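Give me structure tokens for this 371-residue protein.
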Amino acid sequence: MIIPMDAARPPIRTPDQRIRVFVSSTLKELEPERRAVRDVIERLRLAPVMFELGASAHPPRDLYRSYLAQSDIFVGVYWERYGWVAPNEDISGLEDEYHLSAGLPSLIYIKEPAPNREPRLQALLSRIRDDDRTSYKTFTGPDDLAELLAGDIATLLAERFDAGIIPNSPVPRGSGVPAPYSALIGREAEREEVDDLLAAPENRIVTLLGPGGVGKSRLAIEVATACAARGRHVAFAALESVSSPERVITAIARALGVRDTGDEPLERKVAAAVHDSDLLLVIDNMEHLLPATDTLVSLVTDAPRLQLLVTSRSPLRVRAERVYAVEPLPTPAAGSDDVTVASSGSRSTLHSMVRLSARCRSGRSRAPLTS
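Here you go.
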């Protein structure tokens, strides 16, 4: 009996195509922990990718960048040292590896206590803690770390496996569109308007423009999810942790599943990947990387059906751009018991929030909330 292959199923990896786990840490202070991490990864039948200094035909930076480009999961293990900063570089290889991991599932482990932690590592860890797309935990020694890592990788693989086999999932497997963490409140009209902009093929770049924290990324996630539910290919490139314009193309490549194998320029491989695709590519948090705008323009120029949905605090200022201003949600005046919003579907929710706020101010917050 011949069983037809189901194209929707995820591919089965052969033994030489195991999931690769890139491990980032300083080499001198965490040797026992690195051994423990390697043991866990190999015990799970995964492939550890661990950059070690030593004789090599390639410069260290090129080597770990190549390793990262071929990896599927990023594991960072940190304690007190920030790591070596190479000549003509502004950041250490340790921080560079973290930035280059944008788009990969990331598991971060921080050893405590750390009485002599270097200030630059402390600053990096503070940014990691503020990144809600990254999981981080503290540990005290190799055994503790091994137990945490084994559980976290198993959970991560289970979640990824489930996401890949759920039928009728609105977001195609591998698109990287973050799962919404809350209901979309007060933005229904904006979502429809952005949908309308993207429905016009001539709008090649649509930029959601607004101040930080206004809800641009949340709106972009909602629009991207809706597009995917209608059957369009969607990819999501998060640039929040990307530190330089030159690395934007790397983040886009990761979002598209394009590997940098070194056989040809990454820009050319990305262009080839999107050339004939009816794709919506979300570029999230572009404002600090505006010099990379030419990269985006080049992509849409060479790919006639590609559209970009960009979130930014500043416009790109290119001819292909259509700017959509995301305004702050309306707030009630003092003493007001209601607020007019753009969508009637969200009015009752906001009305309830306003009433709850009024109760809190008047000391009656224990009363049941009704609309």
